[in-house]
């Protein structure tokens, strides 16, 4: 990293316009898609102790009907955030200097991973909408741990979701989600970083300095269009297909809940697995769990779902298949399931 610090190209106003443009697009987009709607929804949650009906509560029995019905509701809920995510993930690669990203997130270790998690907090996206930005980070050669922390922290440590959860389910659930979420984000990311092995940061850092000091004559719109298309094509088609498949599979993934389930520990493992694989919009785990608890689901299995449903999903794992080693993604999935099970056991005792 010393090469980065010792070599500083001359940078004028034209250079600084690019990161400022990225920040402007991010702020306007997030305000429209996330910050303003969630601010208003917080008052709804406080007044009614609800943020809407469960997205799974339509009693579909046919897999084909379930796939179409769920996909329609899901994509109507997330399409704006998905479009913004692809735009930000592509702009990140053409507007933010790569040497900046490497300084912040390049080294494999706790500091870089922590910064990746903190960088995610304003985004408040679901796992699938955070995936294109995480992919953009990896394509700029940031560390595996930092990119994973950004990806997982977006849904798990979403400040708005924690507020909604407190008003709807109780502040004990929010506190457990916050503490366990920090452990999940940092712990899983650091373990996955170890699984990924050492990365070639020094060469990437030197390349970034050379790149930053070299004038790129290719028009901005041409570079952005190419990057945008590559990111879209590698993430969105498989995303849509996976959501359709999971929409059909929910007929079997989520059983009918009755009082006999209670706090049975037998349900911890299957619900943790289902929660890890299934895909939901931001904060949808709250009405899902609220409805299931009303029907008789116990606290332990409910906490397992609260941890695993938002964290990752099969579609988001598939979206990142080209940017992370398969061993890394499998490690993230297995550890997320284990964290969900452990949190369920803790929640059954404390809540």
From TrEMBL:
Major localisation: membrane
Recorded topology in the membrane: Multi-pass membrane protein
The keyword Lipoprotein is annotated on this UniProt entry: no
Protein's cellular compartments: Cell membrane
Tree of life domain: Bacteria
GO CC terms of this entry: plasma membrane
Keyword tags: Cell membrane, Membrane, Transmembrane, Transmembrane helix
Transmembrane residue ranges: 12-33, 73-96, 116-137, 144-169, 175-192, 231-253, 265-283, 295-314, 326-350
Pfam families: ArsP_1
Family: Belongs to the UPF0718 family.
PANTHER family to which the protein is assigned, alphabetical: UPF0718 PROTEIN YRAQ
Name of this protein: Permease
